[in-house]
Amino acid sequence: MFSVTFAIVLLFFSIVYYYFKSKYFTLHGPIPGIPPHFMFGNLLHCAFLLPGAGSIPDVFLYMRERFGDVYQLWLGSKRMIMINCLEDAQHIFSHRLIYDQGDVFTKNLKIINPHGVICLKGAEFKRHASFTAPLFRRAKILVHFNTITECTDKLLDRWRTQYKDSNEVHLDMIEQSQQLLLGIFGFIAFDYDLQTLEENSGNNKHELTEAFHSFLNTMQIVLQLPTFVARIFWFLNFKARRARTIIDQYVNDMIEHELNSPSEMRSERKRTSFIASLVTSLQEDEKVEAAKPEEEKKGLSRVEVMSEMIGFLGAGYGTTSTSLIWFIYFMSKNSQIQNQIKKELAEYNGQHISHEQLDSLVYLECVLRELLRLVGPALGTVRTLTTDDKLPASGFELKKGESVMISFYALARDKRYWSDLYDLNEFHPERFLYDTEHKNNLSALMAFGGGHRQCMGQDLARLELKLICARLMQFVSFGDGGNEVNSGGYDVTNVNKPKKIGVTVRFD
Ligand code: HEM
């Protein structure tokens, strides 16, 4: 009896295995790739194929070298068709009705933040975008200029008291950059001091800041798991769910506070904080709106507003802080580039600079462009096909439901699109300065994505980065802490961070 039961169970699992293996973990069609393992996809290949167990960015380059512009890649259970040719990438970005927001990662993101604009499509996306996109218009963003400067000054003050020895190597630049960007986010999004820039913020975190950290760490893990595992992980992760409840309580209190403030104050505050702006879009009667078809719905519900705020944090904080971390890393390795930036800033002699003056810093602009080209925080973006299509340059046929990933990382290093003045794997801001023959094809720099789903917060991110970097360079120089602690490398979670960063900080 036991052996019959055992045989039936074995048969059942074998059928399930072969069904899923042949449906989801097998190379189909003419697009090349490496046959994937069950559930692990190409992850094990990635670890063994490349010398020194390559990072994901190395894998992207290796596969392009081996298979050409279009290949299949399974990152674990997630299958994507990788696109490495600019013409195909532009075709994808410009055909929004065929290539909609990618499902591969947003499916998982939806588990923990279902109503954030990044996860939405169709009419629901349009309704949300009509309230969220205007928050990032240039005129709205410039209002935050002083906040960004003040927060950076707070960080500098902290360094002045804590980093007295200019030869000491600091290994906490990732935390420092994250605390700065989270502090700024608190003010811009909620008009709220998250106290991340206080002297003792490392030991004694504010409850909301702690909750943000816990939630964001969980988000990184959830994004990478197979969707059904991600659901179980989220369900069993009481700490992260408690963090989400704390965040929701705070955001809800902030909404109440906004609603109870006098209307003339509210219209003034609307200019300066995301939450005050979004409160004006709250639905008057959520039950009535919920009963309408999506196309007829107006405004946002309270839960949707909360989801948007958390979505902005997820999309904006890790990406911008990572770029700042890379800036510090490259400055520590290139004293001549730091000197060049300082030369450009010298005339302001440590004074606060205006946004017109910030705009005029051409060399710093080239440094930031080069940063986003070489080590942009996102390695690529995904779109999912709503109908069959054919790629114009490579000629491959794609099927409805398949997902393509445009590889920003490979395009940014592709000799076909860049001048050969400097090595494309090295950091040379001058490549943007001396390209007099216009050999650089700037469309191959896609750090913020493209088409109808490109980054909503890109102007804010650019302003934050340029202003913070300028302010830091007005006062400090970063030095190389030595190869053992400052070797860079890639630590790819949801963003592409340096693995090892250790720098000295000297006040000039
Ligand atoms: C250096 C900083 C940043 C980088 C490199 C970056 C990059 C990206 C990328 C690659 C995408 C996907 C675009 C696509 O699929 O075509 C994206 C989407 C998005 N980003 Fe950013 N981002 C940054 C900062 C920010 C900031 C500061 C915010 C807001 C606070 C933000 C909000 C968003 C939103 C809301 C989306 C979703 C747009 C949509 O789905 O329609 N990002 N970002």
Structure overview:
- There is one protein chain.
- With 508 residues, the protein is of the alpha+beta class.
- The protein has one domain: Cytochrome p450.
- It is 53% helix and 10% strand.
- It is built from 22 helices and eleven strands.
- It has helices spanning 2-24, 43-49, 56-67, 86-94, 103-112, 122-132, 138-142, 145-162, 173-190, 207-224, 227-236, 238-260, 263-269, 274-279, 286-291, 302-333, 335-345, 355-359, 362-375, 408-411, 430-433, 458-475, and strands at 70-75, 78-83, 99-101, 380-385, 389-390, 397-398, 403-407, 476-480, 488-492, 496-500, 503-507.
- The strands form four sheets. The chain has a five-stranded mixed sheet, sandwiched between helices. A two-stranded antiparallel sheet has the order 5-6.
- A hairpin with a 6-residue loop joins β5 (389-390) and β6 (397-398).
- α8 (145-162) packs parallel to α22.
- The chain is globular and about 80 Å long.
- It binds protoporphyrin IX containing FE (HEM).
Task: Spell out the key features of this protein.
10% strand, 22 helices, 508 residues, alpha+beta, Cytochrome p450, 5-stranded mixed sheet, binds protoporphyrin IX containing FE, two-stranded antiparallel ribbon, single chain, 11 strands
